[in-house]
Amino acid sequence: MKSTIRIAIGILWTGAFLASCSKVLDKAPLDSYTDESVWKDLKLAEAYANNIYNVLPTFTVDWGSSLNRSVVLSSACDEGFTKFGDGYTCGARNVLNKGLLSPDNAGSFDIWSKNYSQIQNANIFLSKIDNVPGDDAYRNRIKGEVTFLRAYAYFQLISDYGGVPLITQPFNLNSDFKATRNSFEEGVTFVSNELDKAAALLTSATAQRGRVSAPLALAIKSRLLLYAASPLWNPSNDPAKWTAASAAAKAVIDLPGFSLFTGNYADLFTSFNSELIGVHLSGYKGEWDPFTGLEMMCFPNGYHGWAAFAPTQNLVDAFGTADGKYITDPASGYNAQQPYVSRDPRFYAIIIYDGRPTGNPAFFSDRTTTAAQFYEGGYDSDQGFDAWNNSLTRYAFRKYMDTTFNFNATTQANKFWILARLGEIYLNYAEAEFYLGHESTARTYLDKVRQRAGIHTPLTETGTALETRLRNERQVELAFEGHRYYDVRRWKIAEVTENKPAGQVIITRNAATGVKTYQYKDIEARSFDKSKHYLMPIPRTEIKRTGLQQNPGYN
């Protein structure tokens, strides 16, 4: 069903463009660049294009606006928790978790205006770039980048809202701003075709540090088609959609130059390596400013971090034992009073738990140990240093953390957010092959990911048990990378996972013996309404302005 709407998208691109120029160009006064001059110079056109990169997720934290959703997504599903609830700029995740989401309160989770603003910028660029004089290869490269960025913006929109208007021409003051809301399927076809166009224009066959590449375009196509084949959008389980998802993933797997990272697993997320297909660079601003650094936001309070985003006990329990068994398996040997012994090797690289050496020298004279102390009365407890910043779950994220980062330093270079990596593509392929009935292939690619992590017991599960394993592997392998939020929705299991309380652990230590006791509790009740919460509400301001039909369940 299509409905006629009017979309008023701000065309305030000039200020953003000039800000981008200040980073890219070493030329005279920025206010000297006119619209006419931009489209006569490929370097100026590229500066304009660089601003559109802001549609990509990053670690950058913008006080006064919103925490980038790359990080906040973790605390809006069962893998994470943030104590920044109703205050600060990530309070929107609180209304999601409490089941209070409405067209008026989505806050930083509302990407509608942000993405359509960048789509407008991309449409302007694509309408002009073919007439800009200069080298064809140079022109095609930046044209390919913007084609990708517009496709990515639409991928985000259809993932959140379902069908959205597909606008491909720039609005101007004489436009009537009328459009139709396309279906989700039309959105998938459009984005898939645009990603193919981008890949054809981007001649580089290797990953580019901080820039879009052909492999990245194909990797996002793999994710797109996986989502489209999943139960939320494929209730009849049409095998043709799984076939398309499988083929898209295999096309990336077959690309030369990429391989699973086999070094120290934690280094996968802090160093440029063969597994990374695309990253978005995000350096820090260079001041003592907690709103610029992921380490500051996530490290335990005893290191003067904020522990603002922390793993839940739910996520910790998803990690199996060293031999690959679930902790619920009686044969696993798991002991809830010795919970961190003999766990999946990835657990130690992803989670900071009580007693785990962090590797961070702290750079503070008041810290005499680098081992985390989440037990009551420890350095990182609510009786420790900076007690108000303690982790309420008694865990912190190790993944993505630079453990050598000095909070007093002025800069940090080469920080990045992973847009796609080969490990994800293996999991995409395994899932698509499973639903096509090719269970042996699914197990093979799951085992590749597990063996890289250090789990060498081959999988033998079939049927529903193998489906459960597939989902568990994504939960563990891709934790804190922005996938879980969408995975539980596309699988249509959010009505189960997001209606469970978020968990914590309380650890007490006997001062005389040093023996610790672990008590597991709920920290936050959560609520998910399956009649509406699988999609985001379109902002009420947009509904009023355009007459756009709201997603089901939202008033």
From TrEMBL:
InterPro entries: SusD-like_N, SusD_RagB_dom, TPR-like_helical_dom_sf. It is found in: Cell outer membrane. It comes from Niabella pedocola. Signal peptide: none annotated. Residues 107-224 form the SusD-like N-terminal domain. Keywords: Cell outer membrane, Membrane, Signal. It holds the Pfam family SusD-like_3. This is RagB/SusD family nutrient uptake outer membrane protein. Its main location: membrane. Belongs to the SusD family. Residues 296-554 form the RagB/SusD domain.
